[in-house]
Amino acid sequence: MATTPAPTESKSRPPGTRSVLRDSAFLRLWAGTTASGLATWALPFVLGLAVLQRELGAAGLGLVLAARTAGFLAAVAVGGVLADRHSRRAVVLWSALAAAAAAPLLAVGLGRSLLLMTAAAALAGAGQGACRPAFQALTAEVVDPGRRQQANAATTLAVRSSTLAGPALTALLAAFVDVATLLLGIGLLWLVAALLPGQGRPAAAGAPDAPRPQRASLRAEFVDGIREARRHPWFLAGLGALTAVIALGYSATSVALPLISRDRYATEWVLAAATTAYTVGALGGALLTARLRPRSQGWVAFAGLAAYGFAPLSLMLPVHPAVVIGAYAVAGIGIELFNVPWFTATQREVAPDKLARVSSLDFLVSYGLAPLGLALIAPAIHAFGVTPVLGACAAACFLVPAAAALVPTARHFGRPPVRPGA
């Protein structure tokens, strides 16, 4: 299967190459990406505080979060096309500014206008959706191929650390400032994401005086991105496996864990400990992938993705809470054993001028089907019982990545790496 040739500089790069963490261009991008990730995580948490303080009802919270998801899904595909058409830096700037502008609108609407909050949440989701593929493609422009896995691991570490420490920090801030001020703080994070990253290298350089070809429609260019994705069997297989794990495994545990923590263990601490263990495990997985270079990278990644099946499996039987917590830690390690090489392989194998579109397809499919899974899991548990549903979801988490690993080019996420002297 034809793939984009890897730059020759990655083959001759000496072992003592400077760490990506000492590269100012990457550090600016890293800080901007981290700010956007923290802002994305913080919004539902802060809105949850608004419900606790009776400034927003539970139904209103659901409507606002649904609007944000709709905005994300509507914008992620368009953002991918625009990031391949124009400067990725410009797309990051304007989409993050749109998300920043939504924050004060949310603050103004809080307790006054649910309609304004819903519209502002849709705008925030659209900014987030347009940012994601642009940030992915900009990483490939800023970081050379030999250091991209380290760069992706560093970004994952920052975002996971933020989600681990974020609840405590936000709860502490809430003791001194109101929810509206916290929403404005989210807007400031989006401003950092908009203004801090620098310009990357162009995705593809043509002759300076060559006439510009006439642009196709947004739809036609997005379809062209789908064609590029179809050129890579490992990508389609990985996307299918990731979607199955998110829509079935992650959705099932999101619904079942609170119920089981309450009904089986009669305490909320199992819920808190399991979710914390998942994040801590993900941090460990990101640290591991920063240096891990297995010969069969794709197979290791799919094994890591399949490890999420231990989370629903641990909830099926009345085991000791430590088993549940350990299973979530293993699931967290595994998800990053997949995520970091997955992003790195996409940046390496996909044609540079189509990278943002293929990345947008990744986010659109994997995250787009997650709400459907969440909507169906609760009725399924009511109809069939929690144990059969969890068993089916655990089986899907184990079997779908295993089947994906058998697809041609899945073993290495593309072509086998070139060994010295080969």
Number of helices: 16
- Total strands: the figure is 0
**What portion of the residues fall into strands of 2 or more residues?**
under 5%
Inertia-based shape: globular
* Helix residue percentage: over 70%
Q: Sheet bearing the most strands, described?
A: none
Distance between the termini: 20 Å
Structural class: mainly alpha
The radius of gyration is 21 Å
Mean pLDDT across all residues, rounded?
A: 85
In sequence order, what are the helices and strands, one letter per element?
HHHHHHHHHHHHHHHH
Low-confidence stretches: 1-16, 204-213
Short summary:
The chain has 16 helices and no strands. It has 422 residues and is an all-alpha fold.
